[in-house]
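We emphasize that the prediction below concerns an isolated chain of 271 residues; any contacts that depend on oligomerization or on bound cofactors are therefore not represented. The input was used exactly as deposited, without trimming of termini.
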Amino acid sequence: MKNISEMNIIQIDITNSCTKKCSNCTRFCGHYIKDRIYFMDIDYFIAALTSLKDFDGIIGIIGGEPTLHPQFKDFCEIFKKLKPDKSKRGLWSNTCGNFNKYNDIIEDTFGYFNLNDHTRNIMHTPILVASEDIIPNIEERKKIIDSCWIQNYWSASINPNGAFFCEVAGMLSYLYDGIKGLDIIENPDWWKLSLSKYNDQINWACDKCGGAIPLIPRRSIEELDDISISSLTRLKNIKSPKIDNGLYTIYNKGIDYTQIRDVAWYWGYQD
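Result of the prediction step, given as a token string:
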């Protein structure tokens, strides 16, 4: 795995509210009851940016759909003040929600974009297929987890539960009300710390995640999540709307080791 200080991007998850319920979403949209939908407090957003003032990579605002945040315009103004380099301010959006409403503000604020309306034939790998269910051998599982493309090639993150070594681990923590992240007020240099400081997060989250494993992906527009047995139990415990509505299937397609271990597992396209 990679130390956070070596990453090119760090995400701030300002909301888990979304206009969509895509298959195998890394933010698990569709699994939250109403009381578990959050909109990040503006003071916490300032604290998040302040903790990253020396980070030289891209800071991304992500959701859910970030433009649904009722203070999105205010967030943009704060972002411009605290991160003066426009090229280092990123937006991840499905271009729905209030994207068109805030179009001028978005163009003025962000210099880096990852825009995906999920209407194309995009494929998502099964994040909620727990690696511990698929690969019982602990040593084999650790080797695969250590080469996880999400952690090695993508992003650490901050959400209301704190700072995390991996963006998916962070949202698993929020989804399951699990292990808390590092307090960004008490640990403003959280992203400079050795990855060994995140061992508790790694040990808690990675066994519950399928991101590192080359599993068979599903079209995002199906809105059906592939999950494993232990995940089903956890999702029932949190009263997931997707589970209650039958928008899931127990994954039984096995591992495809011929797949390339990179972002194509999650964001791969099919003709």
